[in-house]
Amino acid sequence: MARFLTRLVRRFYGLPQPEIKQCDLIVPLGYGLTVHNTLPGAEINVLREAVHLAKRYEARVAWASSKYFFHGSKDEEDKRKLSLLAEYGITNPLIARGITNSVTEAREIRAAVLRRGIKPHTIVVVLNWPHARSARLIWKETFPDANILMYSVEGEWNRYHRATLQRSNGLWLFACILRDLTLRIKGLEWVAQRQHPAD
Predict the structure, then answer these.
(1) Of 14, 98, 135, 163, which one has the fewest beta carbons inside 10 Å?
(2) Given a cut of 60, is residue 15 above it in pLDDT?
């Protein structure tokens, strides 16, 4: 029953995969760490797909990691991401400052891009599919002059995630729909002040 409902929601809530002709920047959205300080399956899937796209389109990879789980959590997450990318031969990602939610993630990546003098024409955001609608709102407002494409992958969640709402597909889907509605009602500034509950 749960799988049927997920497929139904995806059909009406998910976004179609974009047609990518070219891109300058690939952004694998961050999904934090588990209580064992490993990357969750959702983040590994996103990173792997980002690598394939970066190689195919000869684009730069940029990301931001969560800083609020514990002191040094950003460094732990960055270290694991760098290790995974190095396995695929990518050694020069653009790494932004620490973040607390999806809005600050986009903003910190924009700040990092501007510091480097990069003006991306097309940005492909790689993410878990329930995240796509809210992320599209955030990224289009954060990068108004760029073409923003949402590229979805399947997420794998587990009960050991540090963020409470990322411990199951159902909780994550609920969080994404709630964030999408909140962005439309309250706006980016309000959402930027929030962070995912975590243990």
Answers:
(1) 14
(2) yes
